Amino acid sequence: MAVNLKGRSFLKLLDFTPREIRYLLDLSRDLKRAKYAGVEQKTMEGKNVVLLFQKDSTRTRCAFEVGALDQGAHVTYLGPSGSQFGKKESVEDSAKVLGRMYDAIQFRGYKQSDVEALAKYSGVPVYNGLTDEFHPTQILADFLTVEEHLGYLKGRKLVFAGDARNNMGNSLMVGAAKMGMHFVAAAPKDLWPDVALVNQCKEIAKETGAKIEMCDDMLKACKDADVIYTDVWVSMGEPEEVWASRIKDLKPFQVNMAAIKVAKSEVIFMHCLPAFHDLNTEVAQDVHKKFGLTEMEVTNEVFNSKHSVVFEEAENRLHTIKAVMVATIGK
User: Fold this and answer.
1) What is the DSSP letter of 89?
2) CB within 10 Å: which end of the chain, N or C, has fewer?
């Protein structure tokens, strides 16, 4: 039976079967090849997509805008101060208004409950561009990148180093469980993912052959890894006061060459970006003044090494986000 995702929202990977995720990855690959070959067919002509952002973004916004335009759709961007969403107008009322004007809604913000409510009340497909709990479009890009460099997903060992309770830790664990991978959270015990979500992923793993592990020893976790992945130590929207404690907790889980050396020789390094690997940002300069760090979650040596695939990964946001739109609202 063919996979049909028409009219579906894309809120979290838990909502999708491994077969449906495989379909989206294969469609992403095909759309990427078509774009490179100059033979892409427009399947979203006449469609209108609204991008609703509570949190600023580079990759997510650009990927949705370029992806929609490549496919012939029109895009409206509503930034953090660009609408009354959640301020003078409730999420439910905003959803009902936007659903009458647009064919699809992208939401990037804080609460998972907000993106779920948009999907419930708008009557059109809603795409999760990031919430505090999940970042599903990023995982599609990550997995497409893994396949491009390593050939396949099943059985591959993916280590997520850092705050494993965040949206990336959660989403990579769910994605790995769905696709039969070996997921390891390398983090202090109090920064491991929520127990209920871990148990849910372990139940999924029983069906897919995946393996889900937690480890508080960075080098042990990274031994024989195929992929080492990390993210910023403090997420967007978190208070400045958490920096000191987060640095203290996560410094032992920095991705450096010692971690790369215990992994497989063909290991790839991944990061959803932006990354604090040098002092060339305002945030990094501020942290350097306060804490003396010149690098944070990843060293500059690793970030710029032959193992790093972060910019291919960033490009793949375009192709995978485009696939989600084509699969759900394309002709």
Assistant:
1) B
2) N
Catalytic entry in 138, 222, 226, 271: 138
> How many angstroms separate the CA atoms of 133 and 255, rounded?
23
Q: Which amino acid is present at 98?
A: L
Distance CA 304, CA 229 (A): 14
Which residues are annotated binding-site positions for L-ornithine? 167, 231, 235-236
Q: What residues contact 277, with CB distance under 8 A and at least 6 apart?
A: 295, 296, 297, 298, 299, 300, 302, 303, 304
Q: Is 103 among the catalytic positions?
A: no
Characterize 311-325 residue by residue with b for buried, 16 or more Cβ atoms within 10 angstroms of its Cβ, and e for exposed: eebbbbbbbbbbbbb
Task: Name the active-site residue from 61, 156, 231, 319.
Answer: 231
What strand order describes the sheet that includes 48-53? 74-78, 48-53, 104-108, 126-130
Which structural domains are found in the chain, ordered by start? 13-134+316-329 (3.40.50.1370), 157-225+227-262+268-306 (3.40.50.1370)
Residue reference for tokens 């032959």: 306
272 catalytically annotated: yes
Task: Provide the sign of the torsion angle of the four alpha carbons 6, 12, 13, 17, taken in this order.
Answer: negative
For each of the chain's 331 residues, which pLDDT tens digit applies?
Answer: 589 999 999 999 999 999 999 999 999 999 999 999 999 999 999 999 999 999 999 999 999 999 999 999 999 999 999 899 988 999 999 999 999 999 999 999 999 999 999 999 999 999 999 999 999 999 999 999 999 999 999 999 999 999 999 999 999 999 999 999 999 999 999 999 999 999 999 999 999 999 999 999 999 999 999 999 999 998 767 787 899 999 999 999 999 999 999 999 999 999 999 999 999 999 999 999 999 999 999 999 999 999 999 999 999 999 999 999 999 999 9
Is 201 part of the annotated catalytic residue set? no
pTM of the model: 0.97
The catalytically annotated residue of 156, 277, 307, 317 is: 317
